[in-house]
């Protein structure tokens, strides 16, 4: 993908996030003052051949300072007791890797299909967060993760 295509992709992502959070965004908007900013983004990867997760994960800051983890085009293998975690590991594939470093239980998964938003606590330090993950607490099984990478 050329640089222009990547830039357009980020603009589309910012607009989609803003619209998904109920914010109006003018056509052709870029990350400017008064607009949502995508701080990091990644694509979901399943943990193994059975536990699959697809779509995009974004870390977004709104103009009022609130931060969200947003899932877009999200689809995950259904399972019991699924939670959204933030991890200090860039690409966890096991429960042990998930809990290395800055593991933080964000919330119960809202659903295994569809766009979703999870507000982060205002005092949460995300400087060591490298990925977001879907984790089954009941069976200590990781379903998948998305490495969060800052935009260029």
Write the layout of secondary structure elements.
Blueprint: H1 3-20, E1 37-46, E2 53-61, E3 67-76, E4 82-87, H2 95-98, E5 104-108, E6 116-119, E7 131-136, E8 141-147
Antiparallel strand pairs: 1-2, 1-8, 2-3, 3-6, 4-5, 4-7, 7-8
3D structure, described in words:
The chain has helices at residues 3-20, 95-98, and strands spanning 37-46, 53-61, 67-76, 82-87, 104-108, 116-119, 131-136, 141-147. The chain has 152 residues and is mainly beta. Strands 5-4-7-8-1-2-3-6 form an 8-stranded antiparallel β-sheet. The longest helix is centred in the N-terminal third of the chain and has 18 residues, at 3-20. The chain is globular.
Return residue spans where pLDDT drops below 50 for at least 5 consecutive residues.
Answer: 1-13, 23-30
Write down the overall mean pLDDT: 85
Q: Count the strands?
A: 8
**Mind telling me which CATH architecture this is?**
Sandwich
Determine Rg (CA atoms, Å). 15 Å
Q: Please, how many helices?
A: 2
Instruction: Kindly identify the CATH topology.
Output: Immunoglobulin-like
- Element pattern in H and E: HEEEEHEEEE
Quickly give the structural class.
Answer: mainly beta
